[in-house]
């Protein structure tokens, strides 16, 4: 009976370790999916002129911090009441975007502050070595998620 219980304990330990790894990968994947949705939403707002933010067509963007990102209109102003902050639980962000932000031009939806090598956003897990890299081209299209 002790041998059988020991075997079950070993199986349980392996299963627990494997499930923790899946949780970390899922957390990064979810953060990336939410950011991709937010990128597209900000671009659409810039192209159409969002009525919720006034009648004028204006640029919209995302400002990146190390543990969160902020959706904004016009130019990024810390503390603006219209800013929307998205906190990341188990991930950190590193980016090659100028001033740490992607800004979509009004009407065209192109990236205003484009870097010729591509604007990249790297998500890194705080609990493992998992990471995802998003590349955004000049037109505001996500060209790669690695």
Give the topology.
Layout: H1 2-48, E1 60-64, E2 68-73, E3 84-87, E4 91-95, E5 101-104, E6 119-125, E7 131-136, E8 142-145
Antiparallel strand pairs: 1-2, 1-5, 2-3, 4-6, 6-7, 7-8
Describe the structure.
The protein is built from one helix and eight strands. It has 146 residues and is of the alpha+beta class. It has a four-stranded antiparallel beta sheet, with helices on one face. A four-stranded antiparallel beta sheet has the order 4-6-7-8, covered by helices on one side. The chain is elongated, with a radius of gyration of 20 Å. The termini are far apart. The mean pLDDT is 83.
Tags for this entry?
elongated, alpha+beta, 146 residues, 1 helix, four-stranded antiparallel β-sheet, single chain, 8 strands
Summarize, please.
About 30% of the residues lie in helices and about 30% in strands.
């Amino acid at each position: 009976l002790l041998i059988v219980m020991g075997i079950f304990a070993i199986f349980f330990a392996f299963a627990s370790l494997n499930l923790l790894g899946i949780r970390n990968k899922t957390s990064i994947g979810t953060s990336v999916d939410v950011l991709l949705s937010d990128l597209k939403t900000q671009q659409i707002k810039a192209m159409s002129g969002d009525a919720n933010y006034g009648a004028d067509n204006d640029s919209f963007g995302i400002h990146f911090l190390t543990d969160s990102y902020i959706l904004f209109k016009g130019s990024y102003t810390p503390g603006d009441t219209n800013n929307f902050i998205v906190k990341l639980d188990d991930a950190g962000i590193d980016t090659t975007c100028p001033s740490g932000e992607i800004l979509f031009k009004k009407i065209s939806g192109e990236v205003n502050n484009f870097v010729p090598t591509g604007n990249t956003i790297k998500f890194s897990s705080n609990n493992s070595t998992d990471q995802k890299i998003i590349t955004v081209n000049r037109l505001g299209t996500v060209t790669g998620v690695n």
